[in-house]
Amino acid sequence: MTAVKEKDFFTHNDDLRFADLVSVDTSLKGTTILSYRELVEKFGEPIIRCDDKTIFEWIVVLKRKDLIDIIITIYDWKENRSPQLIRELEEMEWNVGGHTLREVRLACEALGI
Known about the structure:
alpha+beta, six-stranded antiparallel beta sheet, 22% helix, globular
């Protein structure tokens, strides 16, 4: 799968139905190392959860012609860091959730994360 153009995916910022969801039924399939700034540049502002497990989360839907779209989530998990510190870090490990490992690998490769 080649890298996608911005219009080939959308996020919770583009479709507000996703912003209020507690879950899109994804589970941990891998991790990626990026800064908060890089994620905001690529996907826009995160959903701010600030609960006992997650502070920031992005829901990304990769559109595929003639196939089912791939939904992934990118989120911190039980970070013992303040939201401000997470925003300032040069990079950190983020969890990547999805429905299948294969879909998450395809999406991460296509999205360049």
